[in-house]
Amino acid sequence: MTIKPLADRVVIKMVEAEETTKSGIILAGSAKEKPQVAEIVAVGPGGVVDGKDVVMTVKVGDKVLISKYSGTEVKVDGIEYTILRQGDILAIVE
Length: 94
Hints:
The protein has strands spanning 9-14, 37-43, 47-49, 52-54, 63-66, 72-76, 79-85, 89-93. It is mostly beta strands.
Protein backbone atom coordinates (compact mmCIF):
# COMPACT_ATOMS: atom_id res chain seq x y z
CA MET A 1 0.00 0.00 0.00
CA THR A 2 1.25 3.51 -0.75
CA ILE A 3 0.40 6.84 0.86
CA LYS A 4 -0.43 9.77 -1.42
CA PRO A 5 -0.70 13.03 0.55
CA LEU A 6 -3.29 15.66 -0.33
CA ALA A 7 -2.98 19.45 -0.63
CA ASP A 8 0.05 20.84 1.25
CA ARG A 9 0.85 17.68 3.22
CA VAL A 10 4.02 15.59 3.07
CA VAL A 11 4.79 12.05 4.22
CA ILE A 12 8.08 11.63 6.06
CA LYS A 13 10.05 8.76 7.53
CA MET A 14 12.13 9.53 10.58
CA VAL A 15 15.90 9.05 10.33
CA GLU A 16 17.22 6.70 13.01
CA ALA A 17 18.74 8.38 16.06
CA GLU A 18 22.41 7.90 16.84
CA GLU A 19 23.00 4.93 19.14
CA THR A 20 26.37 6.17 20.36
CA THR A 21 27.63 9.57 21.39
CA LYS A 22 30.60 11.25 19.73
CA SER A 23 32.78 9.99 22.59
CA GLY A 24 31.69 6.39 21.94
CA ILE A 25 29.18 5.89 24.79
CA ILE A 26 26.33 3.57 23.76
CA LEU A 27 22.92 5.02 24.65
CA ALA A 28 20.15 2.96 26.22
CA GLY A 29 16.74 3.06 24.51
CA SER A 30 15.28 5.37 27.15
CA ALA A 31 18.18 7.83 26.87
CA LYS A 32 17.67 8.48 23.16
CA GLU A 33 15.81 11.60 22.12
CA LYS A 34 13.08 11.48 19.53
CA PRO A 35 14.80 12.23 16.20
CA GLN A 36 13.99 15.54 14.54
CA VAL A 37 15.52 14.80 11.13
CA ALA A 38 13.35 12.98 8.60
CA GLU A 39 13.41 12.05 4.93
CA ILE A 40 10.50 13.03 2.70
CA VAL A 41 8.81 10.00 1.14
CA ALA A 42 5.87 11.67 -0.66
CA VAL A 43 4.73 15.23 -1.38
CA GLY A 44 1.20 16.50 -2.00
CA PRO A 45 0.34 18.63 -5.05
CA GLY A 46 -0.07 21.93 -3.20
CA GLY A 47 -2.78 24.20 -4.61
CA VAL A 48 -5.25 26.43 -2.78
CA VAL A 49 -5.31 25.73 0.96
CA ASP A 50 -7.43 27.90 3.28
CA GLY A 51 -7.83 30.47 0.50
CA LYS A 52 -4.08 30.80 -0.10
CA ASP A 53 -2.09 29.41 -3.03
CA VAL A 54 0.51 26.95 -1.68
CA VAL A 55 3.55 26.01 -3.79
CA MET A 56 5.42 22.93 -2.59
CA THR A 57 9.09 23.79 -1.98
CA VAL A 58 10.21 20.36 -0.74
CA LYS A 59 10.66 17.22 -2.83
CA VAL A 60 10.92 13.47 -2.30
CA GLY A 61 14.33 12.55 -0.89
CA ASP A 62 14.92 15.86 0.94
CA LYS A 63 16.09 15.57 4.53
CA VAL A 64 14.16 17.99 6.73
CA LEU A 65 14.14 19.22 10.30
CA ILE A 66 10.77 19.08 12.09
CA SER A 67 9.57 19.96 15.56
CA LYS A 68 9.47 17.03 18.00
CA TYR A 69 5.71 16.55 18.24
CA SER A 70 4.36 17.71 14.87
CA GLY A 71 2.26 15.67 12.47
CA THR A 72 0.24 12.48 12.68
CA GLU A 73 2.02 9.14 12.98
CA VAL A 74 0.73 6.23 10.88
CA LYS A 75 1.95 2.69 10.32
CA VAL A 76 1.73 1.16 6.83
CA ASP A 77 3.04 -2.34 6.06
CA GLY A 78 4.96 -2.31 9.36
CA ILE A 79 6.79 0.97 8.60
CA GLU A 80 6.11 4.11 10.65
CA TYR A 81 5.51 7.36 8.77
CA THR A 82 4.45 10.85 9.82
CA ILE A 83 2.07 13.01 7.81
CA LEU A 84 2.38 16.76 8.32
CA ARG A 85 1.80 20.05 6.55
CA GLN A 86 4.65 21.66 4.66
CA GLY A 87 4.34 24.63 7.06
CA ASP A 88 5.32 22.35 9.97
CA ILE A 89 8.75 21.72 8.40
CA LEU A 90 11.36 23.94 10.04
CA ALA A 91 14.24 23.58 7.56
CA ILE A 92 15.81 21.49 4.82
CA VAL A 93 19.02 19.77 5.95
CA GLU A 94 21.83 19.83 3.38
